[in-house]
Every structure is written in structure tokens, then in C-alpha cells.
Amino acid sequence: MNLPDLQADILNRAKGHDRFMVAIAGPPASGKSTTAHELQKALTAAGESAVVVPMDGYHFDDAVLNARGHRPRKGAPFTFDAAGFAHLLRRIRAREPDIAIPVFDRTMELSRAAADIVRGDTRFILIEGNYLLLDEEPWTRLKPLFDFTVFIDVPHEELRKRLIQRWLDHGFDMDYARNWIASNDDLNIAHVLAHRAPADLVVRQD
């Protein structure tokens, strides 16, 4: 499914809703963030209001990960404040005014607090993250908060290629990229694929 078709599907499903919360899930490097931001632009161009809410904003800080011995697995499900993220989504669903949200900054590898605002009158909330559809606690608390769920399905080998390029683009060498993927990213990909709950729509990419 291409972006115009996805946009049309969401608009059709959102009829009668003043607020419509869309979860865009998938393994690392599947294109969740890109899809969410392109969809935001398309909806805005169509006269709608939309905001992207990234799960990555709820990464534990490196200081916390180091204290817990989890820094080598940064990005795994247990390195996020899932309960805090669920609380944020409940506030958004309740349409509280001007909710500040954190945004993860990849250039600094940390979350910037209150980096964006979700207004009370924003209609489309595009939530993106790896673990939005995990079938295990505490992540199962998220799914009832979504009106529509999308899973982006990409072959594992293609994900590896994209991840290698991501780490190279961040200034790391090939050895670092391959070692980090083997010891961390590959494990997270496998976990997402093995523990994903059914989505309303699966978008397959080659």
C-alpha cells in the first residue's frame, strides 16, 4: 500500500472521530518514522491537523541504562519507560490541552524533554515505535488506546542493510555497525517479529 492509499484508508476510518489515534509499528529500520512524518505532511496538506508522537522519546537515559547494566542493549523493550508512555497516550486520548512530549534526538542519543506539543484540537495522532503491538506486558496496555494499527513488514535482510547504512551515516565504521546489529538490533528485530499482536493493516515492503 502506498502513502495516498494509506491516507485515504485512515481518513475513511476516522469519519465521525474528533480525535483518531493511529499506531505505526514495525521492527527497527522498517520505516515507521518516515511513514509517520510523510503521513503527517499529507494529512496537513489535505487540511487536517496531525502530529507525530514517537515512542523513542521514552528511552531511558544512558545514565539509567548504565546503572542497570542495560546500556549494551539500548533499544530493547526493557530500555523504555513503557508505563510512562502509556500514561502519555491516555492523556492524549483524553484530549488534554497542550501536552508536552519528549522527542529522541539521534544526533545526541538522548531524549529531549518537552520537545513538541500535542494540542487538544489536533485530530490525527500518529504514534510510531517498535513495540506498540507487542503481545506481552506492559506493552499490551497500549493497544486499547489506538483507533487503528498499522504494522510495517520488511524482510530481515533488508532491515540489516538499512541498519548498516544508518550506523555508517551516524559516523561509525563498518565493524561497529555489524557488531552492534549482531548484538542488539538483530535481537530486537527478532523480538518484534516473534511477539507482535495482529494489526488492522499490514504494509509489506521489499
Helicity level? 25-40%
**N- to C-terminal distance:** 12 Å
Order of helices and strands: HEHEHHEEEEHHE
The domain tally reads 1
Sum up the overall morphology in one term.
globular
- The CATH class label is Alpha Beta
Number of helices: 6
Strand proportion: 15-25%
Mean pLDDT: 94
CATH superfamily membership: P-loop containing nucleotide triphosphate hydrolases
Structural class: alpha/beta
CATH architecture: 3-Layer(aba) Sandwich
Rg calc = 17 Å
Describe the sheet with the most strands.
5 strands, parallel
Q: Strands of the largest sheet, in order across it?
A: 2-5-1-6-7
Structure in words:
The N and C termini lie close together (12 Å). The chain is built from 6 helices and 7 strands; from the N terminus they run H-E-H-E-H-H-E-E-E-E-H-H-E. The strands form 2 sheets. It has a 5-stranded parallel β-sheet, covered by helices on one side. 38% of the residues lie in helices and 21% in strands. A hairpin with a 4-residue loop joins strand 3 and strand 4. Helix 1 crosses helix 2 and helix 5 crosses helix 6. With 206 residues, the protein is α/β, with parallel strands linked by helices. It has a single domain, classed as P-loop containing nucleotide triphosphate hydrolases (Rossmann fold), CATH 3.40.50.
